[in-house]
Amino acid sequence: MANQLIPVFNGSISNETALLCDARNLHTFLEVGRDFSNWIRERISEYELAANLDYIIFTPNLAKTPGRRRKEYHLTLDTAKELAMVERNDKGRQIRRYFIECEKRLRENHCHSISSTSYDSRTLCYKRAGITINEIPLNDSDLVISLESWLQLAQKNGWVVMQREGLANKLTNMIENCISVN
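Now predict its structure.
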């Protein structure tokens, strides 16, 4: 980004790719006027920010710095925008607009890269809690449809779709009705 107020970078939180920024850089830009470690701890507590969702904590390897290790925080852009807004100053509004612009540019670049990418193969991935459980290679002639879409399509075309127990009960009722009519 040409006019970068503070660095925004790709990172990972809970196995999900996200745009992040360094909380210490945000604190400096906002010109808070308070000690960083107290400021970040109070904001996390006051706004009930969740570790590994809204931010990550790490301790950099500072071999030349003996004694207490300092904690570093990487914030999601949503969290950074929230912290910028609650400062209620011009710097907070400026950095919030900057973060929104960063997200907008990422979406534009992402959409462009998707449309210009050609795929040599297709893979169906089954994920649970963000972790890939199974991958099935697909041929170009293979059709993939969600279960909900399949159920709607089947019902629309006159199929009776239900669990086995329900089907057995329905068939029993239909047979009893036919017998009682005759």
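Strands lie at 8-13, 16-22, 55-58, 72-76, 122-128, 131-138.
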